[in-house]
Backbone:
C-alpha cells in the first residue's frame, strides 16, 4: 500500500519551454502532497506544500510563478516548471501524506529528472 | 528551527559487518522520526518510523532504530550488512512547528558495502 507514482521519469526540454510533472497517489487519497527538489549528492529541499482544492504554500525563495502547482483531486498533484532554464535542471520528487493528523507519513514518488538544454 | 544532523556523509562497511548510521535532532518537543533509503536515480523508500510507544523500532530489510530522548538521537542499525544495502540514507523528523506536517531532512549518509 501507499504507492506514489510520478510521470514522466525523465524529461529533456529546450530552454524557454514549460514542463509538467504529475504526482499520483495510487492506492490512497492524499489531501496533502509535497514537492521537493534534489541537487546531485545533496539532500531534499522542500519547494512547496500542495493542498487539494486550495493554493499551494511555497517555501521561502521558491518562485511561485515559475513553479506552478495544482492539486485538483485527492490523488493528483502537478508541478509545472514554466519557461524552464538550464538552472532548473534537477531531480524533482513528490510525496503524498498518508495517515491521520500527527502520525501521517510521507510516501515518495520515484522522482523526475529534468534536463533543460 | 528544527534541524537534523547525520554524522558522516559516507560510511564504509564490509559485507556481514554491523551497520550504524547516526542521526541527531534538535527539538524541545519529541518529534516523529523517520529513516528513508534512496537508491540511485530513485525516490525515497520508507525504512522505518517512530511516532509513539516502543522506542526500538524495526523496519524493512533487517534495519532497526532506537529513539533515545535523552540523547536526542535516532540511530539506524543493521546487524549484518548486505551488498544490496549500499545506498543513500536520510534521517528525517516531522516538524512540530508545522503541526508535524513537514519533514526536515538530514544531509544524508552514503553507505558503501565492500565484499
Residues:
Amino acid at each position: 500500500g501507499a504507492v506514489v507514482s510520478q510521470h514522466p521519469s525523465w524529461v529533456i526540454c529546450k530552454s524557454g519551454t514549460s514542463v509538467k510533472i504529475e504526482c499520483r497517489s495510487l492506492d490512497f487519497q492524499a489531501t496533502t502532497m509535497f514537492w521537493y527538489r534534489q541537487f546531485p549528492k545533496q539532500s531534499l529541499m522542500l519547494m512547496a506544500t500542495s493542498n487539494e482544492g486550495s493554493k499551494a504554500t511555497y517555501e521561502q525563495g521558491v518562485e511561485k510563478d515559475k513553479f506552478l502547482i495544482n492539486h485538483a483531486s485527492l490523488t493528483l498533484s502537478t508541478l509545472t516548471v514554466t519557461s524552464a532554464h538550464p538552472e532548473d535542471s534537477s531531480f524533482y520528487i513528490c510525496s503524498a501524506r498518508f495517515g491521520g493528523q500527527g502520525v501521517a507519513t510521507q510516501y515518495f514518488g520515484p522522482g523526475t529528472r529534468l534536463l533543460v538544454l | 528551527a528544527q534541524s537534523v544532523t547525520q554524522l558522516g556523509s559516507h560510511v564504509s562497511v564490509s559485507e556481514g559487518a554491523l551497520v550504524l548510521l547516526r542521526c541527531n535532532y534538535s527539538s524541545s518537543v519529541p518529534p516523529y522520526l523517520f529513516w528513508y533509503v534512496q537508491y540511485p536515480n530513485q525516490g525515497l523508500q520508507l525504512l522505518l518510523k517512530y511516532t509513539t510507544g516502543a522506542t526500538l523500532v524495526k523496519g524493512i530489510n533487517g534495519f532497526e532504530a532506537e529513539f533515545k530522548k535523552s540523547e536526542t538521537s535516532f540511530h539506524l542499525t543493521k546487524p549484518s550488512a548486505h551488498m544490496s544495502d549500499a545506498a543513500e540514507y536520510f534521517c528525517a523528523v516531522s516538524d512540530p512547528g508545522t503541526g508535524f506536517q513537514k519533514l526536515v531532512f538530514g544531509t544524508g549518509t552514503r553507505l558503501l558495502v565492500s565484499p
